[in-house]
Amino acid sequence: MPPNQQQRQKCWDSRDRFFACLEQNDENAAKCQSLRQEFEGCCSNTWVKYFLRKREYDKYKEKLQTEGFKPYEEEKKT
Q: Which PANTHER family does the record match to this protein (predicted)?
């Protein structure tokens, strides 16, 4: 059975608190462990996985937009 509106809201709120904690603590997950446990407890495993992946993708996308694409260059052997 899919989550009802209250369950979804609780999940989203716990996600937002956890992600805010990570941002405030320079991505130090150890300082946000209790909020991560709450987030994982309030949301289904598939939602947790999706939200974490989306956050990483959004951070990567922002980095590309601010710093641009920097291709990897192998050392040239002579």
A: CYTOCHROME C OXIDASE ASSEMBLY FACTOR 6 HOMOLOG
DSSP letter (8 states) at residue 6: H
Tens of pLDDT along the chain (78 residues) come to 888 999 999 999 999 999 999 999 999 999 999 999 999 999 999 999 999 999 999 999 988 888 877 777 666 555
Encoding tokens for residue 36?
A: 């991560």
Q: Report the SS3 class of residue 64.
A: helix
Which SS3 state, helix, strand or coil, does residue 26 take? coil
How far is 19 from 3, CA to CA, in rounded Å?
21
Q: Are 12 and 42 in contact (CB under 8 A)?
A: no
Whether 43 maps to a domain, the answer reads: yes
Please give the Cα distance from 7 to 49 (Å, whole number). 17
